[in-house]
Amino acid sequence: MHILVINGSPKGSHSVTLQTVNYLQLLHPAHTFEVLHAGQRIKALEKDFSPALEALAKADLLLFAYPVYTFVAPCQLHRFIELMKQHQADVACKWASQLTTSKHFYDITAHRYIQDICGDLKLKYVRGLSADMDDLLTEKGQREARDFFDYLLWSVENNSFEPVSVLSTPAKHVPATVPDCSQEKQGDIVIVTDCEQNDLQLQNMIDRFRAVCPRKTRVENIREYPLRGGCLGCFNCAITGKCVYTDGFDDYLRNTIQTAESIVYAFSIRDHSMGARFKMYDDRNFCNGHRTVTIGMPVGYLISGNYAEETNLQTIVEARAQVGSNFMAGVATDEYDTDAAIDQLSARLSYALEHKYVPPQNFYGIGGMKVFRDLIWLMQGMMRADHKFYKAHGQYDFPQKQWLKMVAMYAVGAMLASPNLKTKAGSAMTDGMLMPYKKVLEKLKK
How far is Cα of residue 84 from the mean position of the Cα atoms in its chain? Predict the structure, then answer.
């Protein structure tokens, strides 16, 4: 496969983000990686865009690689995208994804920007990788980069991509083959729903998912569960995790739902949300406190209604998965090409389960967990179950523990404050930043 890396960093080959691309290139010599330094060469491309058009024409897959700058991509990449549209670059039905590095401050809005652009250009978009700037220097970060690229290759091979906006003209799609349901299935995917008897549309979506899913599925209709009421905020569960209600919901949640290998939530939109019954279910989950007990579990959604216009609900759905460190396998709606969307949700869930795919958290997840971390640290005397969980899972990752990095930053700050030292250093600072990444790449070459 010919992969065109659209490097949006103004630093060109000295980009930290590009080092992860170099890492993937060394791992996959069977694929051709061509780097277009769009950010660094934007002035030249404004004068002559033909080299970019030639590179775009040859590409099978466009990989947007860039650092997150102030909520979105660098302005140079914005300008490159303007030039793509201005010159009517024909990239329809090609594949696309993205790879960013940042400290996770609004990486979500940057990724959504590129996803929407891919919709405009009629590209087949695969969810990208949002990495921390230092991730490539750790075994965990290297594994996440490898897992992302494996997932990207699987998506291309299986024609699995994110649905574009309903306002855009869709790329051509070949629906997944419905498996032979007479064969015994393995696994355990639970579908949590509040489906009413007369909600035939949602029921049909659930039936379709169960038919095409290659793994065993079961339905838990929370409308039928005898919930006695919503969460009272009494904190009775803070010490033992036991809910004050005697309807057995805490045991039902832990032993019937959270024991599954994956959860698919199915609901019809009511009043710009999941509806009151589903909200009661969500609130009663507080018997688990602030403990992300389903870490690593892939999740998906079957949603009936005008989801494309419910931006706040979209944020809620995304944030729930991110804070829980769950792979978001997708949201299948009945707005457009419903069967194809359900088929792809099923395929992505199966892939995530088979390969244990858990991408790193973005701003929603990182930011949300930092809020929880600080809250539980202060309330550890009362929230004892949470405190024990956070200690066991290394979630007290306070920055003041990183003394060596803090001292190093004082040294860098002193150098930047001195005009003489800054002049003498020249490009040495950039080279110094890349040095540990080069060690990773040299180790991989050997």
Answer: 26
Largest alpha-carbon pair distance within the chain? Answer: 76
The per-residue pLDDT for range 126-148, each reduced to its tens digit, is 999 999 999 999 999 999 999 99
Neighbours of 26 (CB within 10 A): 14
pLDDT at 183: 60
The SS3 call for residue 429 is helix
Strand order in the sheet with 186-193: 215-221, 186-193, 262-268, 299-304, 328-333
CB neighbour list of residue 371: distance below 8 Å, 6 or more residues apart? none
| Nearest alpha-carbon partner for 145 in 103, 108, 97 | 97
Task: Find the helix packing angle between 139-157 and 338-355, rounded to 10°.
Answer: 140
| Whether 399 contacts 366, CB under 8 Å | no
Measured at the alpha carbon of residue 418, what is the angle toward residues 413 and 421, in degrees to the nearest 5?
100
What average pLDDT does the segment 439-446 reach? 90
Q: What is the pLDDT of residues 181-198, one digit of tens each?
A: 446 789 999 999 999 999
414 Cβ contact list (under 8 Å, min separation 6): 421
- Using alpha carbons, select from 225, 189, 195, 186 the residue that is nearest to residue 210: 189
**Nearest-CA neighbor of 126 among 116, 139, 136, 115?**
115
Q: What is the CA radius of gyration of the chain?
A: 24
Alpha-carbon distance of 357 to 176, in angstroms, equals 21
pTM greater than 0.85: no
Q: What is the 3-state secondary structure (H, E, C) of 351-403?
A: HHHHHCCCCCCCHHHHHHHHHHHHHHHHCCCCCHHHHHHHHHCCCCCCHHHCH
CA distance 61 to 292: 35
Q: Is it the case that residue 48 has pLDDT exceeding 50?
A: yes
Tell me the C-alpha distance between 278 and 284, whole Å.
Answer: 10
Are 272 and 326 in contact, with CB atoms under 8 Å apart? no
* DSSP structural state of residue 411: H
Residue 156: exposure state from Cβ atoms within 10 A (0-12, 13-18, ≥19): middle
Q: Pull the structure tokens for residue 444.
A: 């991989």
Residue with tokens 């009151």: 276
Nearest to 123 by CA among 92, 97, 158: 92
Please write down the HEC assignment for all residues of 15-48.
CHHHHHHHHHHHHCCCCEEEEECCCCCHHHHHHC
Three-class secondary structure of residue 65 per DSSP:
strand
